[in-house]
Amino acid sequence: MRRTLTFLALGLILVVVALLGIDTGFAINAERSFARSLPNVADGENGVPHLPYEPEVTISGFPAIPHLLDGHYPAIGVTARAVDLSPTVTFADKTQTRSPRSCEPDDPCHADIRARLTDVRVNKRGRSLTHPFSQWSGLKVAKATTSTTLDSVAVGRLLGITDLTVSTPAPPGTAGGGGPQDGLLSRTSGIVLTGTVQTPPPDERDVKVSVTVDLAARGTSLTITATGFYDGPEEHSTAVLTPDEAKRVLGKFSATIGGIPMAWGATATSARSSGSDLMIEGTPDPEYTQSPSLFLSQAGDVHFMYTCGGKPC
User: Fold this and answer.
1) 261 neighbors 299 (Cβ within 8 angstroms)
2) In the chain, which ranges are E strands?
3) Predicted structure pTM score
4) How do residues 211-246 score in pLDDT, each as one tens digit?
């Protein structure tokens, strides 16, 4: 009797493990299916950025098979890394670089694009257990958030400051601020940029300075405004400058970077630092159907994703 119960228990364990393995396999396949449903425009056609790598996709909901069968998912997260940038950069003195020399087509600057879709329903057309998503799947999404992240290397190349670093100081009066216990620090103002720039003529010279900047976002643009030179407790660089030199040097850290891609054509509503990165965030309209095929479409094109003849699809 005891041996029989032991075999039954082992058999039950094997069945459970097998079912978990099958469910996990379907979950992984669903994530790959969604990733492959996102457009990969090899040459940046029609102004759509290039996806050089298959995006990372995570789909919530366990077990996975019931969600695949009814096409309803609690959440879907997408991370597209190293997306090509084709920005315009306008500096504080109104000089504009339409395509920064340091971000040429053969060596473009990059950004990471993230999106999170909550309470997602997929229409039945063309959907199956083994192929749950396609580029033309209709997605009904209750809530969506997106962000685009520029690391310090990309920001430095866009500003023409090749050794630029970005740091987020801890809040004033925080003992031991900035340590691992604080997690990834984030701010909208008082972010510190450090880099080497050239002073204006006639006494041109290279100076390495640390400046504080404020961030703002509008549309698909990130505005960086230098507010002064940093002299706080964090590691920083200083230089002796005349008033005119100081003004011109600050101007080299002040610019508006336009044409930053966002997921599903969202327009930016906020900007902040995240450790050593700069980030703009936005929220697509959650009321209308979304399509994977328009993941990298610009805001003007997204109208057709959300509406059909002026009415929700």
Assistant:
1) no
2) 56-59, 72-84, 88-91, 96-97, 110-122, 139-151, 165-167, 191-198, 206-218, 221-229, 255-258, 268-274, 277-282, 307-308, 311-312
3) 0.85
4) 999 999 998 899 999 999 999 888 899 999 999 999
